[in-house]
Amino acid sequence: MGKKISVSAQDYIEKGQFYLINKKYSEAIKQFQKALKLKPDVLIYFHLGLAYEASCQIPQAIEMFRKAIELDANHKEAIEHLNSLTNQ
Which of 33, 2, 41, 1 is nearest to 15 (CA)? Predict the structure, then answer.
């Protein structure tokens, strides 16, 4: 009997981080989006923002950093990235 392997949000996050580090931004975005569907989380929004920013998808990056800040108003890195993208 085959054992069904379930993929967790953490698995997608780790894959996304791997792709992000290796500058494969479209793959990173796909992985982080899959993770968000399983578990909306401040760190996933933040990493997705980084991937969008790195791939020059600035409106999407701004939206993700804002969502991260909505969940954690003290997320310093998200605030810094948002401010740099919106020139504040």
Answer: 33
The tokens for 17 are 């981080």
Single-letter code of the amino acid located at 24? K
24-37 pLDDT, tens digit each: 999 999 999 999 99
Question: How crowded is residue 71: how many other Cβ atoms within 10 Å of its Cβ?
Answer: 15
CATH assignment of 9-85, among 1.25.40.10, 3.40.91.80, 2.40.50.140, 3.40.50.10710 = 1.25.40.10
Q: Say if pTM beats, i.e. exceeds, 0.85.
A: yes
In sequence order, the 6+-apart residues with CB closer than 8 A to the CB of 71 are: 40, 41, 42, 45
